[in-house]
Give the backbone structure.
Amino acid sequence: MPTTGYTEIGYGGGVTVLVGRERGAYPYAHSVLVRGAAETLVIDPSLSLVGAAPPADVVLVSHAHEDHMAALGDYEAPVHAHVRDLAAVRSRAVMVEGYGLPQEAAEHTDVMLRDRFRIQDRPEATGFEDGTVFDLGGRTVTVVHLPGHTAGHCGFLIEPDGFLHVADIDLTSFGPYYGDVGSSLTDFEASMRRCADVEARWYGTAHQKGVVEGAAAFAERLDAFAGVMAARDETLLAFLTEPRAVEEIARRRLVYRAHVEGPHVLPVERRTAVRHLDRLVGAGRVAEVEPGRFRAV
């Protein structure tokens, strides 16, 4: 399988989206190149950049997932990530732990990250926080912390171009993903509200939807994206007409379609189910009617 090749599309005076292969569908992703008068910065060097990465003085990682880091090895430039994802950027072993897989699956994933995505330890990577500004000379990149997908997931506001890169708030029909060990459903909801409040001309996603122009169009697509989360609530409530255990809910599936297989499926489904149950119990829509078994109220 070829792993290089991207298309460049410019926005404003200094932002170039490096459109990944297959419209950025996983295992690919879109990267962003930002040119200032003094320095050039790249965001999320993806698999499509491997062997063909454009020069950059600084590398930013939106979050510690392999499809956003595959071409890090092409850069000797300083690498920065949010402090809450920094350990996973520094260590592939920590990244694997974050997926919460059974041991055999974790070992297989480690090999896949090494061989397919070329993920290597970057112990020299340093952390940033919400609001950190990278001044490239006449152009700035400001960190917008958008947790939920991962604890350190971030967007980046590029000015004066008015380009907000929202990474894996990606507007796809799959919907929000919050199935890692460090993910949070409630944080994801808050992050969607936050990025909707950021005024920009363009909103860039990391995957198939690409770039959306205009706040109104972005808000419409964001509502549909959030609607997937609400639909999962309704699916769960319909299933809880009688008491169910988490394992039963996981097998029913809120995230993946029935044909999707793999050792990651049930761990993700369990964590997702628990997060929805916690929220619905808190809202008084579900009750734990006996230890470990839940029913809609």
